[in-house]
């Protein structure tokens, strides 16, 4: 299930509840999310890890943040992941990835 974050206040609450986050997606939407973090007063290093389906066509790092292949077993219990994906990708990826995912 993907949890939608609908407002700026909900996003700030999500960010404040976590000591750094993981983000799924290394495309254009990730760049937009970096800009949003800066506007909200968070530095890019608040993102601890960038997750992707496959390393093919993806960089090894973005803004010095490592890019790694997503594996469900590598997430800690109750660890949340923010999705930096286009809206049309969400239905497909939501079922594939499982729970604990958030999207603004």
List its salient traits:
single chain, 104 residues, alpha/beta, Rossmann fold, seven-stranded mixed β-sheet, 3 helices
The total of helices stands at 3
- Share of helical residues: 25-40%
Assign an overall shape: globular
Corresponding CATH architecture: 3-Layer(aba) Sandwich
CATH names the topology as Rossmann fold
Number of domains: 1
- Rounded mean pLDDT score: 81
Describe the protein in words.
This protein has one domain (2-103): Rossmann fold, CATH 3.40.50. It is built from 3 helices and 7 strands, in the order E-H-E-H-E-E-E-E-H-E. It has helices at 8-16, 28-39, 90-97, and strands spanning 2-4, 21-24, 47-52, 61-62, 65-69, 81-83, 101-103. The longest helix has 12 residues, at 28-39.
Layout of helices and strands:
Elements: E1 2-4, H1 8-16, E2 21-24, H2 28-39, E3 47-52, E4 61-62, E5 65-69, E6 81-83, H3 90-97, E7 101-103
Parallel strand pairs: 1-7, 2-3, 2-6, 3-5, 6-7
Antiparallel strand pairs: 4-5
Q: Summed up, what is this model?
A:
By secondary structure, the protein is an alpha/beta fold. Helix content is 28%, strand content 25%.
């Amino acid at each position: 299930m993907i949890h939608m974050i609908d407002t700026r206040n909900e996003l700030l609450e999500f960010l404040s509840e976590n000591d750094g986050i993981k983000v799924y997606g290394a495309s254009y939407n990730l760049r937009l999310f970096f800009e949003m973090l800066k506007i909200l007063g968070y530095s890019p290093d608040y993102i601890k890890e960038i997750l992707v389906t496959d390393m093919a066509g993806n960089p090894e790092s973005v803004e010095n943040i490592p890019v790694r292949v997503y594996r469900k077993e590598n997430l800690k219990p109750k660890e949340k992941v923010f999705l930096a994906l286009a809206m049309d990708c969400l239905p497909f990826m939501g079922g594939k990835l499982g729970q604990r995912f958030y999207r603004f």
